[in-house]
Fold this sequence. Notes:
The structure is a homodimer. By secondary structure, chain A is mostly helical.
Amino acid sequence: MIIMPVEEKRIWPFTLLILLLVVPLVAFAADDEALRQRASQILGPLPSAMPSEENPITPEKVRLGKILFYEPRISVDGTVSCSKCHPIALYAADGLRKAVGHNCKENPRNDPTVFNAASQISEHWIGNRTSVEDQAKQAVIGPPAFGMPSYESVEKVLRGYKQYETLFRAAFPSDKEPVTVDNFAKAIGAFERTLVTPAPFDAFLKGTADAMTAEQKKGLGTFIDQGCIGCHFSPYVGGQMYQKFGIFEPYEKYTKSEKVDEGRYAVTKSESDKYIFKVPVLRNAAMTPPYFHDGSVDKLTDAVWIMGKIQLGKDLPGEQVQDIVSFLHALTGEIPEEARTIPVLPSGE
Amino acid sequence: MIIMPVEEKRIWPFTLLILLLVVPLVAFAADDEALRQRASQILGPLPSAMPSEENPITPEKVRLGKILFYEPRISVDGTVSCSKCHPIALYAADGLRKAVGHNCKENPRNDPTVFNAASQISEHWIGNRTSVEDQAKQAVIGPPAFGMPSYESVEKVLRGYKQYETLFRAAFPSDKEPVTVDNFAKAIGAFERTLVTPAPFDAFLKGTADAMTAEQKKGLGTFIDQGCIGCHFSPYVGGQMYQKFGIFEPYEKYTKSEKVDEGRYAVTKSESDKYIFKVPVLRNAAMTPPYFHDGSVDKLTDAVWIMGKIQLGKDLPGEQVQDIVSFLHALTGEIPEEARTIPVLPSGE
């Protein structure tokens, strides 16, 4: 038996208390750091913008692009602007199963947000738009979108406003005739290339350990461990590859899809592209229901469980689903200040 | 013959020059002041808001109302919010001949701006809405508007979002169950009661003589002298009375109206109300084409000439029409900062 002096007897319980408090804290911090490092390798924080060599971002283009984003007078029924299907108030998605264009024409698929969209390998669920610029250009004459009869008809409307002449000239100073649909597309593209939404997840990656809750961190770990990052990688948490929807089982077994969509097969006509879709960006997923290419699932918890089931062949338990959903909430970002203000469109006379 | 000393001979031309310069300036300033006083009696500057005893404006109501203004999930097809027909980017009108509601339903009449609207004796072209609150309440179940089947169905949607519960409770703290359509209408109303748009005309009335151009001042004089102010009076330059559209000749003789609208007769069923409409507010008229209850006229110059012809029995010469149009441009106001920023709507989960 060791006889402790009175002094030591008194100190010992305090030492234990301090050890009990400090050791887990250090361990926790170490866990955080390990998680941060793993996540940084596969995901990483958002950049400040999504530049393009073909279409450099300039303040003049962004200014014009933001105005054009709200312009409905270049649609065949006067009701469609980019902001119709991408209202900023709803995180630039529309909350519908499938987007609705001019004269109530239903689009073939669900409307993805334009936030962080310019980062992707292609646009639209089946990758039939090469870039945000290409998307904007094709949308104005798209039968279920703006529905204009020709590019010339769009240019004619825009040229009807003196203020547009001035704005296009400022944005494209070396062009003899700057008011063109190509420049319309570049301006919209430049605006959209600024639409990044830094989130608590980015703050965590940059070293603010408490930017994410314990549940969100656990969810991030689960998201990595369960293999979600196999497809949903990059700072955008998706948008970098195509993948079959329904690897283990046909997707329609679990979604409430009204009909089966053959996906990218419509673009390539290659059998191997049947049911192949672009992996969506998961940034702001919590703010942009409903889910999947046909908006057939309303709840994020259901969407996460279905993904586990048909993409990973795993029946994820409720707690893991909930943790992943918590992590997805940490991807809800700040809308850029510039996108939170509404421009005034050129007037009629 | 008067012999002038040499000194006086030299000074005289300078005196004349000074007189030639100064006298008209003084006379002009006196004209400005006279015009300012005349205009102040009949028109007057905008107040800072349009309060209501029944629905006092509070910051909490305005905050909620602004969010609800962008809410499409309370429409039967998920596409209609107040901002659909009143996009701020287009000065809170929609640029269409007639407004388009859910499932592309055409409204019977042209869409008036919600800016400065709460000031009127009633809402809608035929005065079948008593206030902005009444308008908002009826719109959610309006067959060509939001088209919801019942008030209960609207309340059910709103109660599905926890954040709305919090926002309604903050705005209506003494209500046991604050999430109601009546409170929805009050919140929208409170927001709209803040939407005043002070313009160069107001600055002129408050004493900044050069806030308006010479042409705009001339136009203001013409507007008063020709009798436009007989109907278009008050700081809102309209909205305070009903009047027959087509006093001297049937309006359809000059507009491109597809069919004749019997106006307020639809509300009162009184013969004397045939072709009677509410006199519209002319604030921001230059920013909100097309014109008249059926949006049948595209250009402001045409609209002004037609008004002279059929309301005053005068074939206004082109120069006077142009002057009046110039004055109307001086009514294009600043959109309130608060209305220029977009709120974020409550999320799904």
